[in-house]
Fold:
Amino acid sequence: MTQATTLGELRASAYPDRTVKQELRANLLDRLELGQELFPGILGFEDTVLPGLERGILAGHDLILLGERGQAKTRLVRAIVNLLDDSVPAIAGCEVNDHPFRPICARCRDLVAAEGDATPITWLAPDERYSEKLATPDTSVADLIGDVDPIRVAEGRYLADELTIHYGMIPRTHRGIVAINELPDLPERIQVSLFNILEERDVQIRGYRIRLPLDILLVVTANPDDYTHRGRIVSPLKDRFGTQVRTHYPDTPSEEIRIMDQETRPLTAGIPVRIPAFMKEVVASLTQELRRSPHINHRSGISVRYSIGNLETLQAAAVRRAARTHEPEAVPRPIDLSAVLLSSEGRVEFDTVEEGREHDILARALRQAELNVFRRRLSGYDFSGLLGRFDDPSFAVDTSELTPASDLLGGLGDLPGLAKLLERLGVQEESPGVAASALEFALEGLHLSRRLNKEEDGAVARYAGAEDSTTG
Structure:
């Protein structure tokens, strides 16, 4: 269907006149009835967060999303844009996306009065109807609402003339979605002006009061502690949000892994990378352990970005080894997890009073994560064939970040039951790199279960029989 180019053509086409909230509600209902995916790329919120968000949109409420960092709040807000129409009409050249049937700015009111049905219109895509602002203490009223344009005054207009105003972000997103991240960081005077324009539909700019009956959906995000306990939001503005949606971190390691798989950037170094499932589980379990740790600042939180970054570091460590040792594929092994701790320590905020213990806290969480996965995957497995090799007091297995898979496998020789071990660890396709990773994981798990000893000398780790070492 050809899109109208003038106001008269738009009237003749019987275009539906509805607000942005009515538009979002209608499109949401259509997709719910058709069973379509509403928020692609949002994982782990299907039964907890999304129902509340859908109810808020259906109710026509402005929304506030509460959650710690890295809980996909901004991604969730941006996903709402998918519920907008593919295109909507606006008066051509308008700064505030005026509806052809209901113009709110002086320029468009005068234009429609003069041109009538010949008023030219344009069509806006969804991304032209979305604005996002990170709240900072230096945010001004001019940024959000507008200010007098000195150039227009210099052209001869009076300060009291509405045409002298240069509109800010919110009026320029008229008939769209306005997102403000970290709302409590806005100064109170800015919060008051925001409330005024949303509730009273007027605003004062340099002492000049104008009415702006804006048609917007306001979606803001905030940390729960700032929003509920610190009193950093003025009460009238807090009362403006009809629906509060609480986000959360992934509840289980499997959900964490789904998000990691979706978000992790693949390395394009020319060396194929294969990450065994049990190594992903260790990375996810490490994050979950830190979220439960009393030594971690839980107001700051441990975001899913921590897991994603760790998985990318794990890939990089495996690629580095493969490049140095000329292996045909890069497969992460437990020895690479030390690099993960070193690279991610600065991303964690600690609550411990003892300085210098940060690495120990992370290392303890990593050992517990490895042990959790070992017990979950290999509980009840018969390790007699592997442990039998260590009955010889002189037998030991050395590994390091640059030990090739072939050397590690050669040190252990032929092992009965290797195929069964790989099956229990979820390995679908066997290769030397994957077999070496599985065996090293088994050795580490046996060490953590106090059935083998482990000595570390710089970058080299040595596994030996229990009676052969004083450490463990």
The radius of gyration is 30 Å. The mean pLDDT is 88. Residues 92 and 468 are 82 Å apart (CA to CA).
